[in-house]
């Protein structure tokens, strides 16, 4: 089990009209860890392991509306988020970089590789959201219901509904290490998640042609205990991405970077640092 711990050297970096809270740790080849959705420290255990293992400079950030970054002024799309990531890479003089994204941020990682391939060396995506698969309708129906609850009752009520479904009615008493953030942090950022991220997800329509055009090597990482719709997306990506590899973590679900950080970090290190493509 991973622990939620602060990383090193946090600061604010301008991306044009906003400032993003950026942190980094380690030294070596640059790895950009994209800002997570709702649970801000979801990738912290994995990031720290990558940095501590040597040879990698891990740079992460909080997206607009999260933690200490600029407040969210309007809903943003996956492409908007990818543009912020590109601006950050350029502003910090990092490119080309390896990129890691989980869940919603995995969609951002693919969009970044498509829009700015010159800035990206390799991309690792942890269970990106489904589209064009049998489970897409069910996932999108659930997302629409959460957005409707947010619009009807507010962020607190929508959050309670969602976390009760995902974790259980006692989710507020769970260890923050099992959630990827403290309850206070989750409550603080819930408006961004329901008001922007879920809407961005519903507007994300990656076509077959678009995916075939991503020339960057992509590693898919997932768990064998996740919802079937994530495995359906894995199958779709495996048949479309030109330079694709995959690895499934046994006993893991969708929160695999928190529950299985050692396995995830090892797979990422092999892919990002040595160029190996685990199968």
Give an overview of the whole structure.
The protein has one domain: Rossmann fold (3-Layer(aba) Sandwich). It has an eight-stranded mixed sheet, sandwiched between helices. It has helices at residues 44-52, 78-92, 104-115, 136-153, 155-166, 176-179, 183-202, 208-212, 228-240, 256-259, 261-273; strands at 11-14, 19-26, 28-33, 55-62, 97-102, 120-126, 218-223, 244-249. It has 279 residues and is an alpha/beta fold.
Uncertain runs with pLDDT below 50, 5 residues or more? 1-7
Give me the CATH superfamily. Alpha/Beta hydrolase fold, catalytic domain
What is the makeup of the main sheet? 8 strands, mixed
What is the count of DSSP helices, taking H or I runs of 4+ residues?
A: 11
CATH class: Alpha Beta
Helix and strand arrangement:
Blueprint: E1 11-14, E2 19-26, E3 28-33, H1 44-52, E4 55-62, H2 78-92, E5 97-102, H3 104-115, E6 120-126, H4 136-153, H5 155-166, H6 176-179, H7 183-202, H8 208-212, E7 218-223, H9 228-240, E8 244-249, H10 256-259, H11 261-273
Parallel strand pairs: 3-4, 3-5, 5-6, 6-7, 7-8
Antiparallel strand pairs: 1-2, 2-4
Helix pairs in contact: 1-11, 2-3, 4-5, 4-7, 5-7
């Amino acid at each position: 089990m991973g622990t939620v711990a602060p990383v090193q050297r946090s600061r604010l970096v301008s991306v044009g009209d906003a400032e993003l809270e950026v942190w980094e740790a380690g030294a070596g080849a640059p790895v950009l860890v994209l800002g997570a959705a709702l649970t801000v420290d979801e990738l912290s255990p994995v990031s720290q392991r990558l940095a501590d293992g040597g040879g990698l400079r891990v740079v992460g950030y909080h997206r607009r509306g999260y933690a200490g970054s600029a407040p969210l002024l309007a809903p943003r799309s996956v492409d908007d988020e990818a543009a912020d990531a590109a601006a950050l890479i350029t502003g910090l003089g990092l490119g080309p970089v390896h990129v890691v994204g989980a869940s919603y941020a995995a969609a951002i990682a693919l969009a970044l590789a498509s829009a700015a391939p010159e800035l990206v060396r390799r991309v690792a995506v942890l269970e990106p959201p489904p589209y064009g698969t049998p489970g897409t309708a069910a996932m999108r129906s659930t997302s629409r219901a959460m957005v409707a609850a947010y619009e009807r009752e507010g962020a607190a009520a929508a959050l309670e509904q969602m976390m009760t479904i995902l974790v259980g009615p006692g989710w507020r008493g769970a260890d923050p290490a099992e959630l990827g953030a403290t309850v206070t942090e989750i409550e603080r950022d819930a408006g961004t998640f329901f008001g922007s991220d879920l809407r961005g997800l519903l507007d994300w329509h990656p076509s077959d042609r678009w995916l075939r055009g991503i020339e960057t090597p992509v590693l898919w990482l997932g768990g064998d205990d996740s919802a079937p719709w994530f495995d359906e997306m894995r199958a779709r990506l495996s048949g479309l991405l030109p330079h694709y590899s995959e690895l499934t973590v046994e006993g893991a679900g969708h929160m695999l970077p928190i529950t299985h950080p050692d396995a995830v970090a090892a797979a990422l290190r092999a892919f990002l640092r040595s160029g190996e493509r685990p199968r």
